[in-house]
TrEMBL record:
This is OB-fold domain-containing protein. InterPro entries: ChsH2_C, ChsH2_Znr, NA-bd_OB-fold, Thioester_dehydratase-like. Residues 58-122 form the ChsH2 C-terminal OB-fold domain. Pfam families: OB_ChsH2_C, zf-ChsH2.
């Protein structure tokens, strides 16, 4: 993978999203959780989309979820992914509620909706760890 091209695609780390990135660096998925109603949210926001409270904290979540949808990307869309085509873009519904779009690694040839997945953490990009998902029960990436 072209690391320089990939790094340009990553969002800026800001004070608002730093707890998310710090969690990934510690192999932990952290999400904002509303102090008023307990709703988890992703991506981060200033107010809760459910109750509009501005009071929240960052909490570690299980990293487990279900595959809701996916596409197998064959065409070159970003040069950073030139060498890894085809790759799987996955829409994962986390057990805690929010949906996350990421990549599915080491996936079986046949996928089915509602397949259990878990977070895996891939270090090495701009000194950041990247969130990806793998089918639950598979060995972690090394």
């Amino acid at each position: 993978m072209n690391a320089e091209s990939y790094e340009r695609l990553l969002p800026e780390i800001t004070p608002a999203n730093r707890p998310y990135w710090d969690g990934l660096a510690e192999n932990e998925l952290r999400l904002q959780c509303c102090d008023a109603c307990g709703e988890y949210r992703f991506p981060d926001s200033e107010v809760c989309p459910r109750c509009l409270s501005g009071s929240f904290g960052w909490r570690a979540v299980s990293g487990k979820g279900r595959l809701w949808s996916w596409i197998r990307m064959h065409q070159r869309y970003f040069s950073a992914f030139e060498e890894v085509r085809p790759y799987l873009v996955a829409y994962v519904k986390l057990d805690e509620g929010p949906a996350v779009i990421s990549t599915l690694v080491e996936a079986p040839e046949e996928l089915v909706p509602d397949l259990p997945v878990r977070a895996v953490f891939e270090p090495g990009f701009s000194e950041r760890t990247i969130l990806k998902f793998a089918v639950q029960g598979q060995e972690p990436l090394t």
